[in-house]
Design brief:
- This protein is an alpha/beta fold and 559 residues long.
- Helices cover 54% and strands 9% of the residues.
- The strands form five sheets. A five-stranded mixed beta sheet has the order 8-11-12-13-14, sandwiched between helices. The protein has a three-stranded antiparallel beta sheet with strand order 5-7-6. It has a two-stranded parallel sheet with strand order 1-4.
- The longest helix is centred in the middle third of the chain and has 28 residues, at 329-356.
Length: 559
């Protein structure tokens, strides 16, 4: 059980991407179903998770059991996908989630039930009365009422929505913020910083006046440190809220505007649950009844649960008239999902056609510039998506991104799973493309071994020679040394030699520009030539630095 000792909202931040819960709770169910959730099973779980191919990292070396609780006791438990008392089991909602069917709908139901307080999150006497809210429900309402909400507005004001009766007050605060912003002559960064500071001082006025400004894991009791910590927490929770709402498929994001809005196609569905879902927390003092409610995969009732409305949705989505009267509600939902997926596939295919004809060249280059200038909300996601677009454009292979797209064919999140970010099929050889925004030693620690493993997986699955292109804004020296060494080592686990070419983003952009200026579609042999050259130079160069310099020069003049 957790205790609510804050004066602002919180949202689950682990895992950061909600769909990454799926392989983790599946592993939990498969190996620990029916066992007690204690320090022994927690340690064993994190060990198994660290060995699994879907997990990056190895958990905390010092607090192994805590690492397990961090993965399971937060989102999976709080959202009702797993039950940990008296023994470990997957709930109805959890089974629905790992089935892979309509994951957005499954997640939406659970988010709408998440509440504060609850039997899982109780208020100590000192904090009694602060919370009375279903956070995701009210943030949906904020977005709907305001039309759009920026990340800063959600962070500064949305996190103050601890009671649903404060809703109108928060709406007015956001509108006042917008009016003040429109008339101020101060640059936005300074305006926002000062506004955030004042709001935090107002929220925590009593703590500040009483000198209670020490934060966890710090002896610094200064007001500046206190405000920075609170601001950081609010930023993390707002980011988590953004990502979980986005994964429902109800929300679209403006990367450049750093804002969320309701998808026009989903407006009816959002209006329905805003009107019908009870805003007050339920069964706060009755854990058994709360769990029964939380675990129910059919609650709350959604717009498409009504057969009449569902029939209308399916009819609108199908391209021809059909007699649907004999189909069950579940079958109708499957038909709707299939129709939406078909439409999304057609949208993506049109995008690919436009890319191959260089109609999107200017936009691809602009997005890369925005990524470098840190102008986009989710730069890692956008780097992966835009690199897929660039690879599609600059050569003639079959290029597939390991991304989850929304109904409009826009990137929603990276997909969980043990595979390369982008996989390119060139008939007689394959290419894995890995991208990262990570820099420094963290780049090597988080990306090094998984990259070589993903390449080995591609070789095994395709049964043909494959290479890897590793792209980052800046390449860490440890990565250069590691990838250089793999060129010369025959490791059976990795399928022999691993030809992985590290490339700075600026160099890759230059390759795309060369392709555009060439006036013809480069031949796959020209792509392959870079990796064959890399293998030759790894044998000829005196060290990794000379090798890296040579392949960089080759890439800059690849055509």
């Amino acid at each position: 059980m957790a205790y609510l000792r804050s004066k602002t909202l919180f949202f689950t931040t682990s895992p950061r991407t909600p769909l990454k819960m799926i392989p983790e709770i599946e592993l939990l169910s498969k190996n620990f179903q029916g066992k007690a959730w204690n320090s022994d099973t927690q340690v064993e779980f994190i060990k198994r998770l660290a060995k699994s191919k879907e997990f990056q990292g190895g958990g905390s070396a010092k607090e192994v059991a805590f690492s397990a609780r961090d993965r399971i006791n937060r989102a999976p438990k709080a959202l009702g996908f797993v039950d940990l008392k008296p023994v470990i089991r997957l709930t109805e909602a959890g089974n629905q989630l790992i089935s892979g069917k309509r994951t957005g709908e499954v997640l939406l139901r659970q988010l709408l039930k998440f509440q504060l307080p609850s039997p899982y999150h109780k208020e100590p006497e000192k904090f009694a009365g602060i919370f009375c809210v279903k956070p995701y429900l009210e943030i949906f309402r904020l977005i709907y009422v305001l039309g759009t909400i920026s990340f800063d507005e959600l962070m500064i004001f949305g996190m103050q929505l601890t009671h649903y009766k404060k809703f109108e007050q928060i709406v007015e605060k956001i509108r006042q913020f917008r009016r003040m912003r429109a008339y101020t002559s101060v640059n936005y960064k300074n305006f926002r910083g000062e506004y955030l500071r004042k709001e935090i001082e107002n929220i925590f006025r009593n703590d500040i006046d009483e000198g209670n400004t020490q934060t966890r894991e710090s002896r610094d009791t200064s007001l500046d440190k206190f405000i920075r910590t609170k601001a950081g927490n609010m930023r993390d929770y707002a980011d988590a809220c953004f990502r979980y709402l986005r994964a429902t498929g109800m929300i679209e994001i403006s990367q450049r505007g750093h804002s969320l809005s309701i998808m026009p196609e989903k407006k009816r569905e959002v209006e329905f649950f805003l009107e019908t879902v009870n805003r007050e927390p339920v069964f706060v003092e009755d854990e058994e009844r709360y769990k029964k409610y939380l675990f129910d995969a059919l609650l709350p009732v959604l717009y498409s649960d009504d057969r009449g409305r569902l029939l209308k949705q399916v009819s609108e989505a199908l391209e021809k008239d059909e007699d649907l009267s004999g189909q069950t509600t579940e079958q109708l939902k499957d038909r709707l999902e299939t129709a939406i997926q078909k439409r999304k596939t057609e949208i993506i295919e049109k995008q690919m056609k436009a890319l191959k004809e260089y109609k999107k060249y200017d936009d691809v280059i602009t997005v890369f510039k925005d990524i470098k200038a840190n102008l986009l909300y989710d730069a890692p996601l956008m780097l992966e998506w835009n690199t897929w677009r660039a690879m599609t454009m600059l050569d003639g292979g079959d290029i597939r991104a390991n991304l989850i797209m929304d109904d409009k064919g826009q990137p929603m999140s990276t997909a969980a799973g043990n595979m390369a970010d982008i996989v390119c099929d060139y008939d007689d050889f394959g290419l894995a493309v890995e991208v990262t925004m990570r820099t420094g030693q963290k780049q090597y620690e988080m990306e090094g071994e998984p990259v070589s493993r993903h390449l080995a997986k591609l070789k095994k699955e395709t049964g043909k020679e494959a290479y890897c292109l590793f792209i980052a804004p800046k390449i860490n020296e440890s990565c250069i040394a590691y990838f250089y060494a793999l060129h010369t080592m025959n490791i059976a686990f990795y399928g022999g030699q691993s030809v992985i070419v590290p490339m700075e983003l600026d160099v890759f952009i230059h390759m795309v520009e060369q392709s555009y200026r060439a006036g013809y579609v480069p031949d796959p042999k020209q792509v392959k030539g870079i990796f064959e050259y890399s293998l030759e130079q790894a044998k000829a160069a005196k060290d990794e630095n000379e090798w890296y310099a040579r392949i960089k020069d080759k890439a800059l003049n690849w055509l």
